[in-house]
């Protein structure tokens, strides 16, 4: 498959998670989850003398990296018909037109966590202690429901149901998809401190991070009952993501404020790889946990970290094998692959959103 073919705007999807689930299901049937696979463009020619992670860095041309100026910046989600990039933050909701880069503020209400299902957008507001639902059928976003909910950090929706992570109290909250009323509360994990965080759907089961006991739980998507637990081996970050390789979680395995990404095989219920994508010299106290979760670009896996895009090699145990450097200093926090580009939310030095054209990753 050529880069132009898999980055075509006509091959877009409305949700990265949906793509990942389909790809993962296909991988399961072939018995290749977490195992080596084919890798396109394995020997990209180096273009600078600068190295990162021991790899020659390739600079991204300024014509392929565009700094945007949305009214708010934060978590990113995509929807189609019409095409939109949604931006959720503690300071409001905005949308971005991927065709011309224009941005529009919807409201100034808090709500970082986003989930898209067809023509509906769900938001979770940890600081605001509520959840909300918007009609996005015309691309403008009209709030149609809002309900109180305790400390909902993230929200996840599928045919199996709608759940929010009650971050402060270590619970999952099952919500009525229309009214957003809480219909069930399920405690996940043990211990004290912050609890449930990132969630992904895989089939009829929901996988959720529990920060209290550094674990990844698989729960029944209807009842919320835990059916399996994976010990991640150290303090965990908030986010997880599902790709064709498995489930990725950020873990500080040495408890030294140098987190790495671990890959969990959900069929075997175990960690099968640890991947370091950051040089120690680049880590500060404020940015130690600011690494975007892996994204799938065509048939390749990339991670946005600091001002770099790092490709992971499935034939080399998912170790980095290619590094691109963006032309401006940023600290990547969230990333999204959609509409023929990679969209990155940077938290430092100033909140911003950067579009990287797919051609730069070819």
Radius of gyration in whole Å, from Cα? Answer: 19 Å
Shape: globular
- How many β-strand runs? 30
Mean pLDDT score, rounded? 87
The amount of helix comes to under 10%
Distance between the amino and carboxyl termini: 11 Å
Main beta sheet? 6 strands, mixed
Enumerate the strands of the largest sheet in spatial order, edge to edge or round the barrel.
1-2-27-26-25-24
Low-confidence stretches: 1-47
Strand fraction band? Answer: over 45%
Oligomer: single chain
Category from helices, strands and their pairing: mainly beta
The number of helical elements comes to 2
List the keywords.
362 residues; mainly beta; six-stranded mixed β-sheet; 5% helix
Description of the structure:
There is one protein chain. This protein is mainly beta. The chain is built from 2 helices and 30 strands. Strands 1-2-27-26-25-24 form a 6-stranded mixed β-sheet, with no helix packed on it. A 4-stranded antiparallel β-sheet has the order 3-30-29-28, with no helix packed on it. It has a 4-stranded antiparallel β-sheet with strand order 4-5-6-7, with no helix packed on it. A hairpin with a 2-residue loop joins strand 20 and strand 21.
